[in-house]
Amino acid sequence: MDLDVLLHAKFKKLGEAVTDWRQMRDKLKTLADDAKTQLTDRAARADWSGENSKVTRPFIDKTAGEIADMRWQAETIYNMLKDTCAELTGYRDQLQFTIAEADWQHLRVRDTGHGSFRVEPKDGADVSQPTIDGFAEDIRQLLSDATESDHSAKETLVALADLSKYGFTDARYKDRDEAAEALKAGEKAARYAEDPEKAGALDAVLKKYRGDALFAERFATRLGPDGTLEFWVAANDPEHGAGADKSLQKHLSETLALASHSDSPAMNRWENSLVKAGTRTVGDEPGGPTGFQVMSNLMRHGDYDDRFLTEYGTALVAEDKRRSGNGERTAWDDAARFPGLNPGGPDSGADPMTGYMKALANNPAAATDFLNGDDRHPAAPGTKGTRDSNFNYLFNDRTWPHEPGPSGELNTGKNYLAQAIAAGATGVPAGEPAPKNLPPHNEGQAHLFENVVETIGKDNTKLTDNGYMSDSFGKMTGHYLPDIYRAVSDDDGGDTDKLYPITGARADIPHGDAVRFLFALGQNPEGYAAVELGQKQYATNLMEYHLDPELDRDSRLIQSSDSPERSLNRIAEQSGEISGVLANGRQEAVLGAASEKDESFTHALAQGKNFVSGAIGTGIGVGATFAVTPMGGAVAGGAATTASSLLLEEIFQANEDSEKEAAGYMAGGEWERSKKDHIKILQRAAELASRSRGSRYEYDVKDWVRDGANTGFNNASTDVHEIIKAGD
User: What is the mean pLDDT of residues 174-183?
Assistant: First the structure.
């Protein structure tokens, strides 16, 4: 910075900018608060239906999120400008004071251009050289500090703006120095990554700056795509590396995932180059791992950007098909050749599809689009998939490599595939609870669920031979219980829209496919528990809904009558059929070739509290009088989940306390015992639902559901008999 520029600087415009951004920050804070109370909170209570549920509600949620990001970005920019303005003003004032002091010491300070200056005696004054040098050093330091402040402000503001090309970023910094320090730390971390022996130091920095967007972008772009891949190979080399561990793998994965959300030109180049490097061998040694094999092990943690994930996956599947002859053989080298790529385990990491599936399980939107797409392109967001979809290739055609573990086959890749499918069909990342504002299913999600049910309906061994997939598929099915109830109702009169309202896209499932799918799920303890508990919750909430004395006449099953008898009878019948099919599946597992222990089913029911009860009462936006829970349940406003909460608590308690008379609700045993248990539970559900609604039919509801449940269970027996007969 030239001396005269700082000396005569007028910071009026910069000060005005600071004032403008302070006012903008305050206005956006008010706007963000209003967006929450006037938009999102009201939207959560609104009665959405039709296209509004698929378009308007998600638009409102996205708009409110953008406004919140605007608020935080304005806050950060204000902090940076305020900090810079104060610093530059201070440096200018110090420079003016220093020059005035030099003048008092008979010294003249002249700007000589291009950042240089001269300090010299005035009119032949006798001034010692140390005094001259002292003033020169002070001025030089002031100019250096001002230059650094100005450069840092520009760099951090540009870096912040580059994080999001369209829209805004939620990155927050209290001042410019904090943002500048993040950029410097990113460069320092990239230098650490150039030396595999500094893996420990790198891990410490990555952990410290976890969640810092500027740090992540600067680290990734300074290291570069090739540097990223080469570092991970070197760090896992037992001869030369310091030995990477699961902590470094996790923090490095999360940092790269965060960086992928940046829209900076450098990060876009990083992503494009990384995808192209996927097919090439990493490093100079022939026979080493490919870019896909290395990078997929750095995708197991964190939430990668949707676009990058789908582009990466599309290229990976194309290469996988080329190597494997469209899935006829294993595509990748034996795990023993690259034992260190995945220190976090449990698999070796040699199959790049495994780590990539875990990345999709963490990102539902990308999972939907990728699995519905093919090896040429992902599906358009929210739309149905292609005929030769990636789901079809990965679930039906691909030969997944065998990898033995201490207790047998690992099956990590296919297990992560199931998690990715469930995430893509529901919109909920694997292992996370469903959020309260979970939007309704879109066409792409519903289509993916249809494909799962159809595929397993045609060949249930695809699930029964891979039982470890059942926990993911069971939880996924809980989100589609309204669709399953519709499928088994065989309604020709068009009553299902009133009995089982659905907002958003519906999954069109044939009755037979639904039964065969449920029969397969029922043969696994976790799959059985997820659907059985979820559908008990759904049935109870539906009863609350239809027992509501304030229910609109147009929403009643029989408009000419206030009595909900027919509604509860039909609900109980469909519930009975679903429970009956699951009970048959459980019996098949216990008595059939699988020889599954019945106690494991009871244990799974008790453990179901961990994933069912936490979802009670959360809605996906059908309105104040009716909302579908993430487990598929109808929730009738206010304290609507009281009945289902109490019912599930009774089931959990009965299965946890073996000394109680009621111990063993749904504890298995012979067919008749299962049916009696189910009827007893549904009667209790109807009783609780009636009380919660203050219904005048409290003493009638148990009779209404008994007959329906009995019919449904008997229908299930016929359904399963046909399945077994067809199998013979």
Answer: 87
Give the integer Cα–Cα distance in Å for 685 and 316: 49
Q: How far apart are the first and last CA of the chain?
A: 87
What angle in degrees, to the nearest 10, is found between the helix axes of 443-458 and 470-478?
130
- Which long-range CB contacts under 8 A does 303-308 form with residues at least 24 apart? 303/257, 303/362, 303/363, 303/429, 304/256, 304/257, 304/260, 304/359, 304/362, 304/363, 304/366, 305/257, 305/260, 305/261, 305/271, 306/363, 306/365, 306/366, 306/369, 308/260, 308/271
Task: Enumerate the H helices of 105-212 as residue ranges.
Answer: 129-162, 176-192, 199-208
296 near 232, Cβ under 8 Å? no
Residue 116: strand pairing partners: 113
- In the predicted model, what is the mean pLDDT of the chain? 85
Could you report the per-residue pLDDT of 528-562, keeping only the tens digit for each? 999 999 899 899 988 988 998 888 888 888 776 77
pLDDT > 90: percent of the chain: 49
CA distance 629 to 436: 9
Q: Is the peptide bond before 346 cis (omega within 30 degrees of 0)?
A: yes
Burial 32-47, CB ≥16 within 10 A → b, else e: beebeeebbeebbebe
Mean pLDDT over 173-192 rounds to: 91
Question: Please, are residues 713 and 576 in contact by the beta-carbon 8 Å criterion?
Answer: yes
Nearest to 564 by CA among 554, 552, 576, 556: 556
pLDDT digits (tens, 9 = 90+) for 54-94: 556 666 666 666 666 677 677 878 888 888 888 899 999 99
Chain centre distance of CA 455 = 25
Torsion angles phi and psi, residue 290, rounded to 5: -85, 170
Q: Decide if 528 contacts 475 (C-beta within 8 A).
A: no
Say if residue 627's pLDDT is above 60. Answer: no
Name the pairing type of β-strands 107-113 and 116-121: antiparallel
Give the pLDDT mean for 331-335. 75
Dihedrals phi, psi of 112, to nearest 5 degrees: -105, 10
Are 130 and 136 within 8 A, CB to CB? no
Q: In terms of Cα–Cα distance, which of 244, 151, 238 is closest to 192?
A: 244
pLDDT tens for residues 279-309?
A: 999 987 778 899 999 999 999 999 999 999 9
Q: Quick one: average pLDDT of 626-649?
A: 53
The answer to whether the beta carbons of residues 300 and 358 sit under 8 Å apart is yes
Q: Of 110, 179, 116, 117, give the one whose Cα is nearest residue 151.
A: 179
The answer to whether 235 touches 196, Cβ cutoff 8 Å, is yes
Shortest CA distance to 578 belongs to which of 653, 493, 485? Answer: 485
3-state class (DSSP) for residue 265: helix
DSSP class of 570: H
Element (DSSP H or E) covering residue 368: helix 364-372
Q: What pLDDT score was predicted for residue 635?
A: 38
pTM summary value: 0.85
Highest mean pLDDT among 28-42, 104-118, 295-309, 600-614: 295-309
Residue ranges in 562-641 assigned as alpha helix (H): 565-591, 598-607
Task: Compute the distance between CA of residue 681 and CA of residue 578 in angstroms, rounded to an integer.
Answer: 14
- Residues 420, 309 contacting (CB under 8 angstroms): no
